[in-house]
Amino acid sequence: MALKFYFHPLASFCHKVLISFYEKNIAFEPVIVDLGNPESAAAFRKVWPMAKMPVLVDEENGRPVAETTIVLDYLEQRFPQEPALLPADPEQALQVRFWDRFYDFYVELPMQKIVTDRLRPEGANDMFGVEQAYGQLREAYGVIDGEMASKEWAAGDAFSIADCAAAPALFYANTVEPIGDDHGHAKDYLKRLMLRPSFSRVLVEAEPYFKFFPMPQRPDISVAKGMGR
Ligand SMILES: N[C@@H](CCC(=O)N[C@@H](CS)C(=O)NCC(=O)O)C(=O)O
Question: How far is the CA of 219 from the centre of ligand 1 (A)?
């Protein structure tokens, strides 16, 4: 039951799926994609022409599965072993799906907008869009802070695919726009995520690549190593 996983260790959407692999103890074959390398990029485009990471290829059926939320859903169906990251109860599952979408759209995407603007050619930056993205992150921090006043994990008491989405999104978002002390519940939630063994493993594996993070701020994983506040 070989699962090929096309990914890059620095890429936050790839972290989202790695967390599920480590939570559920699913074996996979890692294939690192380097979109800056023409050969690696061309090989990846043959797997998935949209060339967005990650992509899972289950050698049992040979079909590529793209889009992280769908990949996580696929893993739940294929590997129903504990822990279940998508609840069987339809109402709870709806909550999990909602918070997965929230973290992708309102934390992950604005964070990526800010970071990838640094990679644009000189003169092609989008300062207006970047300012909007910072504003959206601050708005999202307020929502998360209110939610996490009464919840342990993104959708309630159980760790779920919503937390797989939240962890890398909030980690990198906090690097580019630190969550303030006025949002203590959101800060504590990020700390819980970083101490979760599945995500702290992802962060430790990503650390050698942080030198390629294109912002002046460097990601800091001391909390994940049990050394930070
Ligand atoms: N909606 C997609 C987004 C995937 C995505 O944007 N991946 C980034 C890496 S974190 C990527 O492939 N970036 C390369 C590019 O845009 O050229 C998903 O959930 O899988």
Answer: 19
Nearest-CA residue for ligand 1 atom 20 is 67
CA of 107 to the centre of ligand 1 (A): 14
Atom of ligand 1 nearest to the CA of 16: 19
Residue-level length of the chain = 229
Distance 55 CA to ligand 1 centre (A): 10
**Residue range 195-219, pLDDT digits in tens:** 999 999 999 999 999 999 999 999 9
Task: Give residue-wise pLDDT tens across range 69-86.
Answer: 999 999 999 999 999 999
